[in-house]
Amino acid sequence: MEFSIDHNSALPLHAQVEQLLRNMIVEEDYAEGKLLPNEIDLAKKLGISRNTLRQAMHKLMFEGLLVREKGIGTRVASRSVNTRLTDWPSFTQEMNEKGIPFINFDIHVARVYADEMIAQIFSIKPGTQIVKLERLRGLKDGPMVQFISYFHPRIGLTGQEDYTRPLNEMLEHDFATIPAISREEISAQAAPKDIAVRLEIKKGEPILKRVRKVYDPGERIIEYNICYYRADKFTYLIDIHR
Amino acid sequence: MEFSIDHNSALPLHAQVEQLLRNMIVEEDYAEGKLLPNEIDLAKKLGISRNTLRQAMHKLMFEGLLVREKGIGTRVASRSVNTRLTDWPSFTQEMNEKGIPFINFDIHVARVYADEMIAQIFSIKPGTQIVKLERLRGLKDGPMVQFISYFHPRIGLTGQEDYTRPLNEMLEHDFATIPAISREEISAQAAPKDIAVRLEIKKGEPILKRVRKVYDPGERIIEYNICYYRADKFTYLIDIHR
DNA sequence: TTTGTACTCTTGTCCATACAAACTATTTAT
DNA sequence: ATAAATAGTTTGTATGGACAAGAGTACAAA
Q1: B120 and B71, same structural domain?
Q2: What are B11-38's pLDDT values in tens digits?
């Protein structure tokens, strides 16, 4: 990677360094644990003082993006991601906004016949055809969450849509369906075999399970969604006010 | 207020300054918006360099506790309360309302000395005496959740109170302390040995961990609480509105 | 009374320097 | 072969200094 800083820029040096470091952080090598260049070398390369560099590094360390140890060096922190439960819109959008490259490992869409449970949740006849979406997602260093979603047939999804797009956007713009309420159950459980394989953990290890029923503003259910998160990489945050 | 720093202490100067600032932050005058002493004066008073002082100040600024403006000075950040409301998570109350006989298996109260982490959470000096409450609770057929609570010394708890009473009721009626905001982190993990024993599960089985910081209406922290729930017996429910 | 200028105050940016602390690697002694 | 000592590496702590940028205030001029 090319290290460069514009000494004539109006942007403060420490801000430019911060951005450079953020770019480095998402580079594959560093994301996998390789040490960043040491302070003295990097400062020299950039033509700035060590303290200016440290100012930027401290900020990223404080944000949890870098880990520093004297005598060893500086590394990118291994990711565990958290999300605010009450925040809307979607998780993926939030990750993108945070500059965390959240990617799809696998997407599988199918039309399936609603079983008893799904039929009851959607108040439809068992055997009705609906769209089922399975997505495996995470960061470059590995999968983090498996989503399994079922959509109410009322929406009109065919299964031929582009499911790499943000889901809520597609529902709103293409199907005039607005997600407004999410009712969720969060629990912990031991990973069953199929989920363990997908998330690259051992069967029986703890996972966080999130079951969501999403409703439109008229409180009609539109989506039933189960998420399985690797427990070591995921924490929910929530603020509750009385 | 007396500004003092122990230049012979093993604790780094910037850490002592940080603690001093945290103490200042909770002082009434500053909490109401009065400017802190300027950098140059404060550094002189403390006998440290301006950069050492700034290092500590930056940390608190980054934590959202201080607001700094060039040409004006440094003030304690004013907290605005989130207007979004969700259900209040008084678990015991909810169980009682549902007619589910939720009982205490074990209660243990002690006065303990705040360690580094607790001290930082409460913005008090390490070694300050506080009340720690440990409760094992569940249904008749077995324990379900282990609570570990620490209370801010400002409340005035002695450890001699009746902890079989509902906690919030006691805080409000006897100590004029009103829990208003709860900030929570929910995650899954494998049960460590001590928790597994308490919950009557095997070490390594999944548990749901809930870390709560409870604040009064003035956004002052009053309680730090860790709950470990048996994953097989607990699901967290929440409604989210856009 | 309004506007412009100068000054003061305070934080922001940046630098160079020195030594401490913790860790790893190498060399030397047993 | 192993332990101890030494050297090297890197971040942590701390200092003193200089100048810039932005905000507020005081005062003079119109």
Answers
A1: no
A2: 889 988 988 898 888 777 787 778 899 9
